[in-house]
Every structure is written in C-alpha cells, then in structure tokens.
Design goal:
Length: 375
C-alpha cells in the first residue's frame, strides 16, 4: 500500500489531478502543495503496472522530444561505483538521517524488495541483517531502496556519481523503450526524461535499464544481464514477441557490423568500412526497436565517407559505389542532425557536437564536410 507523502501513514488516496502523490487527509495535501505543484502538470500518472509494481502512464498524447519529467536527486553521492556507497553504508546512513520526514517517505515508498535481494554484496547484507533493532531498520530499508533504484550520474560521457531520483525510478524497463533520460545543461546532477517515440494517452512510459555497451545483445543475453543486475526476468514487448528470434538475428548482424568496421578502417579498406556502415544503417532503419541508434549510425557512416573523400582528393578513387556515397555524404550528416535535434536530449546534442569537433580537429572537414553544430 502507498504511504502519505507528508506523514507516512498508509493511504489509498491520490492527488485528484495527476495521481502522482498520495495523501491520507486534506491537511497533508494542502501542506504539500508548494512542493507538489511543480510536478502536478507533468503528462503522466503513477499507477499499477501488471507484474511490475507501480509505473508511469501517459495522461495525454506525447510527441518525440516532449518532456516527461525533470527530476533532482533526493540523495546523491560522488563515487566511481554504486557499490562504494553500499559498502561504506555509514556514509549513506548519515546522509539519510539528515533528510526530513517527507523526503524519507519518498525513499521508503521505493523499498519494494528485500534488502538481501537489493544488495550485490552478500556479506554486507548479512552484516546489516544481523542488527534488526527497530531504530536501525528504517535506514536499512532506505539503503535497499537506493540500491535497487539509483542510477549513475554522468557528465561529458564520464560517471561522476550515483543519485536516487524518486520519479524517474518509477519508470519500468523495456528493451524497446519509448523514453530516454538525459542530464541537463546547467544542472550538474539533475535529469530529464523525454519521449523518443510518439506515445499514446494511456501508454506506459518505459526506459531501457541496459548500458550503451549492451545495446545489441540478443534476448537470452539481455534477460541474463537484467536478472543479474536488476533481479527480474524481462517480459517486455520485445523479449516476449513472436518475432524475437528474427530480431535476435538482426541484432547479431548489427553487432557484427559494429565490430568489423574498425577492422576495415585499420586496414585502410574504406570500401569495406563504408559498405558495413551502410548495411548497418539499412538494417536499423527497418527495425523500430533499434531506431534510437540510427542517428549515431548515420554519423559514423558520414565519418567514413569523409575519409573516403580525402582519399579521393589526394589519390583518386574509382569505386562507383563509394563515389556515389561520398557525393551524398552530407545527406547522412543532415539526417543525424535532424534526428538528434528532434529528441531535444542534451546527451544526444553533446554527442553530435563532440563528434563534429573531433572531425574538424582531425582535418576531415577539409574534404568538404559541414561544421554545423547543434545549438
């Protein structure tokens, strides 16, 4: 059962406008309005999701790039790994006990799993479980909630810490997500979530818990990784699809193409690299659950074609297919630019601008490439 946002008493009553906060009585709702009004107009409600506990559901149609939520961490720790916080749990206990009751209740509301299941270090779980005094039980439940729901905080492609975002944590996983999370430009630890597909009213808002390095794993590999890290067996629309085997074959092919492109480049086989990059783009274009990777694939093809253009300028280039692609190279950069821009995600904008600056620094844009950056 949910608990009151203000006092922590069990309740089944929610905000009548957004259903995203719980209150046991009118006085509690009134006292929380100053805080709650900041999020009351977000386009989602929190309710039960079959087999997954609570989840976020769209309360209106959303277009690609529409904002779902901005969230600040209720707890944040600068660390290289989340495990560093869990092992040094005295630091967590101190930070938690400095919070007011309202913020503590928000954390405890996320503590759906047992502490033993939440912690990756079995010895730590044993140590904490051995002390079962009631005065210590609350912060241990909060530590379990942090362990199962925290996420990495990254800036410029580097991890700077771990944070607990109480609203973003309610977004359930899908290997074919319709939202994506990003950091904000001027706020070091804040995050935002935006739609990366068109979403219908009533549809659940879903994110991908996998890391970039796990992007093209097949169904069995994804399920194994999610079970090891998050302790659940994935039954998302992709994993449970009748076409899962066909999708796995496409993912294996795309992964192979990703791996072989650097080999072609190391051999200075521009034709091989360009053909592989083009095939990868063609596969991703036809596969809805992989289209979020399309702008990056376009940009890498553009990079390869710029190198080919330089070779043509200095040494001549007779291959008809490559010559045709080189002539159309700006089309791929422009496609990547438009797709990245449409999402309005800072992470994607920064990735595009970083890539373009690297190309300029290496002198590749001298072959006729655009230096257009995303503002």
């Amino acid at each position: 059962m949910a608990v009151c946002t203000v006092c922590g008493n069990p309740t089944t009553k929610q905000c009548g406008k957004c259903s995203n906060a719980w209150y046991c009585r009118t006085e509690c709702q009134r006292s929380d309005w100053k805080n709650h009004k900041k999020v009351c107009n977000y386009p989602f409600e929190i309710k039960e999701s079959d087999g997954k506990g609570l989840g976020l559901f769209a309360t209106r149609d959303l277009q690609i790039g529409d904002l779902v939520v901005c969230d600040d961490p209720i707890l944040y720790f600068e660390c290289g790994r989340t495990e560093d916080v869990l092992i040094s749990h005295g630091k967590f206990k101190e930070a938690y006990e400095k919070l007011g009751r309202r913020k503590r209740n928000k954390i405890l509301a996320l503590a759906g799993a047992t502490l033993e299941a939440a912690l990756s270090d079995a010895l730590l779980a044993l140590e904490l479980r051995s002390d079962s005094s009631s005065e210590n039980q609350e912060w241990k439940e909060a530590l379990g909630a942090f362990s199962r729901n925290c996420s990495s905080v990254n800036r410029d492609g580097k991890r700077i810490g771990s944070g607990l975002y109480t609203t973003i944590s309610r977004i359930n996983h899908s290997c074919s997500p319709n939202t994506e999370c990003s950091y904000l430009k001027d706020k070091r630890t804040s995050k935002e979530v935006r739609a990366i597909r068109n979403i219908k009213k009533g549809e659940e808002l879903l994110g991908d818990y996998m890391t970039d390095g796990e992007s093209f794993l097949i169904t069995s590999q994804r399920r194994k990784q999610l079970m090891q890290t998050w302790k659940f067996h994935c039954e998302c629309s992709l994993c449970s699809s009748d076409h899962a085997q066909e999708n796995d074959a496409l993912r294996e092919r795309v992964k192979k193409l990703y791996d072989v492109i650097p080999i072609f480049q190391a051999r200075e086989d521009i034709q091989g690299a360009a053909n592989a990059a083009l095939e990868r783009c063609n596969i991703i274009e036809k596969c809805d659950d992989m289209k979020r990777y399309l702008p990056g694939a376009y940009l890498e093809l553009y990079n390869i074609l710029l190198v080919a253009a330089m070779q043509k300028s200095y040494f001549g280039f007779d291959d008809a297919l490559i010559a045709s692609l080189v002539e159309r190279r700006e089309d791929y950069r422009e496609k990547a630019y438009e797709l990245f821009k449409r999402t309005k995600l800072m992470t994607r904008k920064d990735y595009y601008n970083k890539m373009m600056r690297q190309l300029a620094m290496l002198g590749y844009l001298a072959a006729g490439g655009s230096n257009k950056l995303m503002s």
